[in-house]
Amino acid sequence: MSSFSHPRQRNRKCSLETSQRPTKNSPSFQVFLGGSCNPTTWRAEFAIPFLTKNYISFYNPQVSEWRPQLVQIEQEAKDNAQVLLYMIDNRTRCAASMVELAQLAGHDREVFVVIEKYPAPGWVIGYGEPLSTTEFNELQLAQCYLVDLLEKSSIPIFESMETALVGVKKCIEEELSVKNLKVTDGVQPVLHGHLVVGKKLICAQEVFKAFDYNNRGNLDLKSACEAFRTITGKKLNERQIQAQSRRGLITLDQFCAILAEFDQDSESSWGNSLFNGLLMVRNLLDLLSPLPECYCEPPTVTESFQYDIYLGGYWDDSSWQNRIAVPKLKKHGITFYKPQRSEFAAGMVAADNFAEEQSRVLLFIICGDMRGSAVMMEASFHISKNHRVILCINDIPDGGTVEGEPLSENAIKDYNRARAYLADLALRHHIPVLDDVEQAVDTAIEKVFVFNRENASK
Questions:
Q1: What does the alpha-carbon distance between residue 80 and residue 375 come to, in Å, rounded to a whole number?
Q2: Pairing relationship of beta strands 401-402 and 129-130 according to DSSP bridges
Q3: Helices 346-357 and 194-211 meet at what angle, rounded to 10?
Q4: Sheet of 433-434, strands arranged across
Q5: How far is it between the farthest Cα atoms of the chain?
Q6: Cβ-contact 201, 288 below 8 angstroms
Q7: Calpha distance 393→307 (Å, rounded)
Q8: DSSP letter string, 168-188
């Protein structure tokens, strides 16, 4: 089994001098200043003066000369900080910072995030690099996925660094959680709140269809109770839902109403928002037909997973998925879900989120001919949630291209640095990191077999 070797990082510009290294015996800093580094100046111009003026301690990871020994130092400071403040600006690619934030989204940390959008293709970043149309589109996509991950984790996004700093001060002084701040505190309104309802609707629709064996568009009372139990884990008897039925049959709309009415007391309650939002998000369900390619069996009441493997990575039709993964999986009778998206579409994001949660193993392939920011964020998020993840990571080689477009030396360093962060995160979580696609697919298949054997013996 091959292992992933980290790219050279001696040119990275973020960390703190060794003399300021935090230790277990030293007091923790109140604020960790994460996110965009050189050539940005937001720390020196805004954050540090504000925090110093308000007597708030902070850790600044930005230095002129980075060295590998500082990785652990930065991690300790981050772990010990009371508040994490991140700037995702539009003057750098922020590839590693976005992967880092995706990981933090999976943990219950106090995170303040400011995101600046890239204005248009040709926008100049870094040390005078104009963004091509292709890279501009990919960076926009990456920011959309980051916003989605943060919103799912109830992490607010601030409209500017100034408002974020005021929020940091308020939370520290009043001992508030960042999640208690409101729009009046500078928090941006939720952009994709409908995805929460949308994901639940997709789950309801998928389970409803699985129990609608004759494709009639309705369920008898017994099947409706079994479908309810599949989603909620709770028992329901036919008498409880008789009133919602028409001639003993339950439609999808009625099934959603049943979920909203009888699952009110659970932590992940479907609530009235599901039924109230049904008509509003009906067009979302219409977008999902046909769904992305998948190969699965209908779930049973006792199953908690619908797919064996989620195939995360590059979504081109000629990619590794069709050439290597799909034939192998079908040969072994492995069920799978293959997302097909190249832009941020709300309906497809909700569908893919549901599929990820319903998969035993999540396989992510980051090839050397892709920038891969969005895929790396997905993988980072699921690693932090302790899901079963298999990774295959290849660096972008010197002189590398993406879809025939040459990448600059700085771009290659930026995207490879994000790969290094993801690989390090995976290894710290004891997750296999490979550099060969076929081996990664085989490892995922073996992981499914092990999972099935362990569950069969229980």
A1: 28
A2: unpaired
A3: 60
A4: 294-295, 336-337, 307-312, 359-366, 389-393, 433-434
A5: 76
A6: no
A7: 23
A8: HHHHHHHT--GGG--GGGTBP
* Residues ≥6 apart with Cβ < 8 Å to 46: 161, 162, 165
| Residue of 209, 279, 289, 292 lying closest to 251 (CA atoms) | 209
User: 183 exposed, middle or buried (CB, 10 Å; 0-12, 13-18, 19+)?
Assistant: exposed
Q: How far apart are alpha carbons 162 and 114 in whole angstroms? A: 10
Cα 115 to Cα 91, 150, 253, 348, 452, distances in angstroms: 11, 11, 38, 23, 42
**Nearest C-alpha neighbor of 380 from the set 436, 337, 428, 324:** 428
Tell me the residue type at 185: D
Q: pLDDT by residue (tens digit) across 56-83?
A: 999 998 877 766 566 678 888 888 999 9
More confident residue, 194 or 73: 73
| Burial (Cβ within 10 Å: 0-12, 13-18, ≥19) of residue 18 | exposed
* Cα dist from 22 to 16, 77, 123, whole Å: 10, 6, 38
Distance, CA of 369 to CA of 396 (rounded, Å): 6
Q: Residues 6 or more apart from 200 whose CB is under 8 A from it?
A: 259, 270, 274
How are beta strands 336-337 and 294-295 bridged, if at all?
A: antiparallel
**In contact, 392 and 434? CB cutoff 8 Å:** yes
**Beta strand extents in 379-448 (DSSP E only):** 389-393, 401-402, 405-406, 433-434
Flag whether pLDDT at 242 surpasses 60: yes
Which residue is listed with tokens 């039925």? Answer: 245
Alpha-carbon 431 to chain mean position = 17
Q: What is the DSSP string of 326-340?
A: HHHHHHTT--EE---
Residues 145, 138 contacting (CB under 8 angstroms): no
Joined together, the tokens standing for residue 443 give 């490892």
The secondary structure of the chain in percent helix, strand, coil, rounded to multiples of 5, reads 45, 15, 40
Is the pTM value of this prediction over 0.70? yes
The partner residues of 86 in beta bridges, in order of sequence, read 34, 113
Among 100, 245, 111, which residue's Cα sits nearest to residue 178?
111
Under 8 Å between Cβ of 324 and 438? yes
Nearest residue to 30 via CA among 110, 115, 113, 87: 110
Q: Please say whether the beta carbons of 228 and 244 come within 8 A.
A: no
Beta strands 405-406 and 111-115 are unpaired
pLDDT tens column, 116-145: 999 999 999 988 999 999 999 999 989 988
Long-range contacts of 118-121, Cβ-Cβ distance < 8 Å, separation of 24 or more: 118/90, 118/143, 119/90
Separation of alpha carbons 326 and 6, rounded Å: 29
Compute the distance between CA of residue 133 and CA of residue 401 in angstroms, rounded to an integer. 14
